[in-house]
Amino acid sequence: MTFIDEIYADEVLDSRGNPTVRATVKLSDGTSANAIVPSGASTGKREALEIRDGDERYMGKGVLKACENINTTIADCLVGINPYDQGLVDGIMKEVDGTDNYSNLGANAVLGVSMAVARASAQSLGLPLYRYLGGSNALVIPLPMFNIINGGSHANNSVDFQEYMIMPLNFDTFSEALRASTEVYHNLKSIIADMGESTALGDEGGFAPNLKDNEEPLKVIMQAIEKAGYKAGSDFGIAMDTASSEFAVEGGYRLESENRTLTSAQLVDYFVDMCNNYPIVSIEDGLSEDDWEGWKLMTEKLGNKIQIVGDDLFVTNEKILSRGINEGIANSILIKPNQIGSVSETMRTVRLAQRNNYKCVMSHRSGESEDAFIADFAVALNCGEIKTGATARGERTAKYNRLLEIERELSGSEFLGKSLFK
User: Fold this and answer.
1) Helix (H) or strand (E) holding 260
2) CA distance to 51, 334, 347, per residue, from 355 (Å)
3) Active-site annotation holds for 336
4) Cys staple from 303: which of 299, 333, 373, 418, with CB 3.0 to 4.6 Å?
């Protein structure tokens, strides 16, 4: 019987130049695989906890403690275990940690090992990762959300909202959708340059110009879609991640670029007006993670018109999502494995969402790496959507290039671009 023979970790760098964990798992049959853990800048306060060293190295952001937890505690409890039982592997780490948020071992330690075990098991069996995790039912190539203008905590500019994205809706294949989206991205660059604004990139590969308010990015994106030869509203929809927890203040929401503070109800009306004036198909984190009443109002006003995505609100947590389902909050969930801590827990949250007709959007983090695990994971779970940045920067294009590979090799695959929002 094949078993886990060795586990170890290294401190490596993510796309922001910060340390992160790379876990390596070796099996008794000689198979070896590793996984690199991402890290977010805009994080929900109920996320699983990543452990940082807090010393003078890397300005306190080192992960040697997390690596040591892998090299000692986690290795001690998993060596000799059957790697093909993902639930067992993840369950052992959860039990050994003994907390709700992995504050002992660190979610960055646990997730790295969880992902590496899955990848090593797939390689051992001669299966692609999406097939190993999803079986013969893994058939859906996800529709991408391309983050082409960055603001908020992902960029050093004047825009309050964190992400402005395009979604290619009128294309038959992922490869066609990727091509068209790249054309829009390059046209957007030329428009921003003609405006005399910087075409420097934010954390996720989108441009980060100084625009006068939170509506101007929408206007510029509309121009880029048209300049690329496409039609906004039919060929492309627009999505936003406002990351409203980042600008929530006592009594409301502070929009610095517009020099005003809005109540929850006023912010919802602000979004309603935007949706009436632009082909917006999805808004993520429209209210803060603690503003459940505001979320309820937004769902009532826009839930039958657009996709309303909970990220900081749900943090990929099965229990919190259950509350949202029971209270009729949002209609979609962002899926970030490092928010919850393991492959198995992520899969349980996705199953709960899908049983209750919540759409699932597999997602990267702003601090990413060349690891393309989430591309396979999105296909394995038939998520239907993926959010992994612009068509630039190697840590973003790694995911898109992996999806191109999967599309080529996956017979009978489905791409839901034309039907996802009908």
Assistant:
1) strand 260-262
2) 33, 15, 12
3) yes
4) 299
For residue 74, what is the DSSP state?
I
Alpha-carbon distance 396 to 364, whole Å? Answer: 9
Q: Which residue ranges form the domains of the chain, and what is each CATH number?
A: 4-126 (3.30.390.10), 135-415 (3.20.20.120)
Catalytic residue among 47, 50, 163, 204: 204
Give whole-number Cα distances, 35 to 47, 82, 131, 148, 422, in Å: 20, 19, 18, 27, 37
SS3 143: strand
Mean pLDDT of the chain: 95
The candidate with the shortest Cα–Cα distance to 269, out of 231, 243, 302, 316, is: 302
Global pTM exceeds 0.85 = yes
As a whole-number percent, the residues of the chain with pLDDT over 90 amount to 90
Please choose, from the candidates 372, 376, 383, 381, the residue with its C-alpha nearest in 3D space to the C-alpha of residue 416: 383
Candidates 26, 94, 296, 336; catalytic one: 336
Span 283-296, pLDDT tens digits? 999 999 999 999 99
| CA distances from residue 88 to 2, 24, 81, 117, 258 in whole angstroms, order as listed | 15, 18, 9, 11, 51
Burial category of 213 from C-beta neighbours within 10 Å (exposed 0-12, middle 13-18, buried 19 and up): middle
Among candidate residues 280, 310, 278, 339, the one with its CA nearest the CA of residue 107: 339
Q: Which residues contact 405 (CB under 8 A, 6 or more apart)?
A: none
